[in-house]
Amino acid sequence: MIEAVGNAFKVPDLKRRILFTLAMIAIYRLGAHIPVPGVDIKALKQLFEQTPLLGFVDLFAGGALSQFAVFALGIMPYITASIILQLLTIVIPTLGRWAKEGETGQRKITQWTRYLTLALGLIESIGLTLFFGRQIGAKFTLDIEILIILTLVAGTALIMWLGELITQRGIGNGMSLLIFASIISRFPQATFQTGQTGGIVTVVALVVILLAIVVSIIFVEKAQRRIPVQYAKRVVGRKVYGGSSTYIPLKVNSAGVIPIIFASSVLLFPATMLQFFPGSFSRMISGWLDPSGALYLGLYALMVIFFTYFYTAIIFNPIDISDNMKKYGGFIPGVRPGKPTAGYLDRVLTRITLPGAFFLASIAIIPQILGKFFNIQFFQGGNFGGTSLLIMVGVALETMRQIESQLLMRHYEGFLK
User: Fold this and answer.
1) Are 359 and 253 in contact (CB under 8 A)?
2) What is the model's pTM?
3) What CATH number should be reported for the domain holding residue 311?
4) For the chain, which terminal residue's Cβ has fewer other Cβ atoms within 10 angstroms, N or C?
5) SS3 state of residue 69
């Protein structure tokens, strides 16, 4: 592994991309520690200790929310906007047409995602300012409130820009890496708290559970069903083309960590917004959507399964693959080309996605259950859970794959021998 890291820095283009990514993450972490004006940080910390939901949201903001920093809203407005736009592509014909137009249509969808992100950021920043002002007893004047709101919206726009820059000029998916950086920044603190409250036995049990979870995540992430494909021979002039055999790798978890991020965003958004409106009804709904409660965990598992199938259907189109195979003379042995091939691929993908979806759902909720049952601080409150671990491992694997492909293209050995 050390040799592969050394090889990555020997390639000038790859080295530049890695350093650029690290620089953008450093800027993101810096913005998470610069508080907005006129806020009492000590009073905020007391509020977060009393409200578990805010601590859970703060995990995805990398501690920026508990300090009411410039980047307090984190990446969640962008993720929520992306989910809304992707769902609307099914309902609105114009968006559906853009989604099929390739790069040109994707640019239009991305632009509308940015607009929606700023709108959601404005709504959330107004709610946060009023909520924190009321809860910590800070009497903000109107000009201070406007300044805080503008600062938070500008921070959201800057995070969105940093993520897109990493995707274009760095390594990996920018938004995923920013979430990864936010989560990993809380790792030392969560481990230290677990050692303080539970002692050495709890820490050893935690290490064993973490190793088991990480190994199982990697095992499922790499699991795939290989569909054999045979290409018929074609004579073009004096040359013979085709006659080769290959396969279509269908992953058990084709959607990666996206269902986890989507499900978290959908459930956290209404629960977070209700915090801003006092009243018995809001308190009742917030109690139902407590991240450690049974209702929340049940809804979370169902939404993870739904988004796994939903996102897999978006990224994998059996009809397009079948048409391309037929166009170039390819066929699956024992299956007729055309519509029967598309139906076969769809059936196989549906079957292998089911265990992948159930695995994601179980990993998302089991650590929280273990943390509550065995009183492991690491998995409780605003600390780590299955969601965080899935995102960490999934993003790390995806980034490592991209570096690996770059190294192999330049005839270097990668991480996997």
Assistant:
1) yes
2) 0.77
3) 1.10.3370.10
4) C
5) strand
